[in-house]
Amino acid sequence: MTKQLLLADLETAATMESIEQIRIKYLGRKGLITNLAKETDFSKFSQEEKKSFGQKLNELKIFATEQIEKAFERVKDLESGAVKMVRLVDLTVPGSVRSLGSMHPITMVQLELEQIFEGMGFAVLDSPEIETEFNNFEAINIPKDHPARDMQDTFWLKNDLVLRTHTSANQVRTLLRFGVPVRAIFPGRCFRYESIDPSHENTFYQSEGLMVDENVSVANLIGVMKTLLSEIFRRDVKVRLRPGFFPFVEPGFELDLNCMFCGGVGCSTCGDGWIELIPCGLVHPSVLEFGGIDPKRYSGFAFGLGLTRLAMMRFGIRDIRHFNSGDVRFYEQFAPIL
Ligand code: PHE
User: Fold this and answer.
1) Measuring from atom 7 of ligand 1, which residue has the nearest CA?
2) Does one domain contain both 83 and 178?
3) How many beta carbons lie within 10 A of that of residue 116, not counting itself?
4) Do 73 and 184 reside in the same domain of the chain?
5) Does 221 share its domain with 312?
6) What is residue 85's predicted lDDT score, i.e. its pLDDT?
7) Does ligand 1 have an atom closer than 6 angstroms to the CB of 307?
8) What is the pLDDT of residues 82-128, one digit of tens each?
9) Atom 10 of ligand 1: nearest residue by CA position
10) With 0-12 CB in 10 A as exposed, 13-18 as middle and 19+ as buried, what is 187?
11) Distance 8 CA to ligand 1 centre (A)
12) Which residue among 127, 142, 166 has the greatest number of ligand 1 atoms within 8 angstroms of its CB, and so is best to mutate?
């Protein structure tokens, strides 16, 4: 009977404290089991009876002690496990914010540009950042010792290789590879030996565009440029076309964009209210010849869009140096908002 009571009590005990209470209840100085001996009148017991009572009482004590010990062990494991858990998971530590990555703003603009041009039937080509001197200069009509080379001072590598100064370096390769008719853009990174300020970087992005076919004229060039800019800026933009000199186009133009920061009155980003954005022109006959194309039959246009500058306009970034800064605070601003 006592055994069953004890087991029932132990079964519901979940803490060291409550088991200790049970131990006292049964085995303490005034405990139920301890009292059994005290409350028994041995005078009526025979010698035999005393002996067997003593033995049973002892067995009962041993049983109770063992059961209580087991219960202690069981709860001790539980409690120390719980303590460990609390130590491992410190619920008072402030949460850590896991910031989302984002696409680089130039990549965003580049992808948008690719989509717009793909919509006009242009292919998007990869092109090398390390170029031959021939492709970067000679093939596009900038011979050695030509003063135009000074416009694009670059980083020279060994074996007449250079870090390309512009994506135009891929023009002749494209003509040789694809022939005519051809419509392609080739976005990518370019390098110049440049002193750095809010609008000049030694490492920047451009996208070249090239279209060569029969009867391609300045009208086609302007049409494509207008489509491009109105799609990128999602509104009517003011542009101007003025003559520009580049050895590989004839005639050559500078397409300027009315500054969006100051509305065209002049500021530290634009200077005089206009931002030089797209140098362009009709492909020079000698470039076509280097590309194996007959300039009497074919003509084309080329442009060199400043992707970095376009990203500045698009996102209102006033200092070009942010792009390569590696400063997370800059990039975070382009992360998707959840
Ligand atoms: N490659 C020229 C530059 O980087 C830009 C350009 C490209 C001009 C195509 C005309 C035609 O300055």
Assistant:
1) 304
2) no
3) 18
4) no
5) yes
6) 66
7) no
8) 666 666 777 788 888 777 778 899 999 999 999 999 999 999 999 99
9) 280
10) buried
11) 91
12) 166
